[in-house]
Amino acid sequence: MTIAVPPAAVACALAERFAAEASELDRSGAFPHANIAALRAAGFLGLTVPRRLGGGGARLALSAEAVGRIGAGEPATALVRAMTLLHHAVIHRDDSPWPRLVADAVGRDAVTRGTLINALRVEPELGTPARGGLPATIARRDGAGWRITGRKIYATGAPALGYGVVFARTDEAEPRIGKLLVPFDAPGIRIVETWDHLGLRASASHDVVFEDVPVSGDHAVDLRPPEAWRKPDSWQQAWSCTLIAALYDGVARAAQAWFIGFLRARVPGSLGAPLASLPRFHDAVGECERLLAVNARLLAGLAAETDGGRPPPPQDSGFVKLTVTENAIAVVQQAAELCGNAGLSRRNPLERHLRDVLCARIHWPQGDAVRAAAGRAAFGA
């Protein structure tokens, strides 16, 4: 069985369908199980699995376009999906440290069952390990396998995950840190429903508790000495930054479309004509179009380099993620400001777009980390 790459029209139709339910998902915070089922049925969850495993073999440009389209409809759904696409883009590379048989099994699961996978890295005390430090989650030897104990927070898509890639440290005399692949049907896993956030409320990024969870030996897919994790991987950084940026660019494009429709429909009695007829709104909408056009160029450029086998240095991918997401935030903020009370009313989608797009600043690499790393490099540190 080989899945066909779904055409753009399918993504657009799904995005419209998801958008119709997005407000209710936002209010309830319920996980979008129906949306994930629709993506699964359309073959979108195996999009980046290699063709030799029956997947779509999609590269970054197509993947980012698909994530952006779904992000415009319902961004929590797009985020859950983006994480699965990212993992399959990385773990099946020839230079991946993952055991080939393990990676192939996960890939086939995505194709045949639409199984979701995501990394579980952040912890209550440590925060994100990208800023350094040893995780508190422990992997201890148990014969030929491992036992994992610890707590992860912000586990996006937790209720629907088939696999978690858990970042942990070993109990060895000289601890290694890294990734262990944990099937979510293993005993000892408990999801604590803690997610109640400003935006992306349907992402169900709950806490996951691991209590002596058994993991087979070959599922310790990437354990290294701590110092070996200091240098980011250019390929993974390019994919991650592009998909995350594309998602929030999609949110901004949805906000821009709504704003234009609002300006066309709103006819104040004092004006006797639509707000869209006023030059100041032409200027405002034009400025947002400029920012979105810059975003499109940046995303296309980063994807093209990566798909061409030349992913840029991690710093450059961070620049693109930061610039695109800040542009997206500026677009939505401008629309909300100019709409006045209508822009902040919960009966309109713009206030939800504003809350969702602000979440872009939380995803790694965060703005201060991008700028500080660039500054150190400029000083030769």
UniProtKB/TrEMBL annotation:
Q: Where is the Acyl-CoA dehydrogenase C-terminal domain?
A: 244-363
GO MF annotation: an example: oxidoreductase activity, acting on the CH-CH group of donors
Q: Which SUPFAM superfamilies match?
A: Acyl-CoA dehydrogenase C-terminal domain-like, Acyl-CoA dehydrogenase NM domain-like
User: What region holds the Acyl-CoA oxidase/dehydrogenase middle domain?
Assistant: 123-213
Listed A to Z, the keywords are:
Flavoprotein, Oxidoreductase
| Keyword Repressor carried by entry | no
The record's Pfam families line, in alphabetical order, gives: Acyl-CoA_dh_2, Acyl-CoA_dh_M, Acyl-CoA_dh_N
Acyl-CoA dehydrogenase/oxidase N-terminal domain residues are: 13-80
Protein name in the entry: Acyl-CoA dehydrogenase
| Organism encoding this protein | Methylobacterium tardum
Q: Which gene encodes it?
A: acd_3
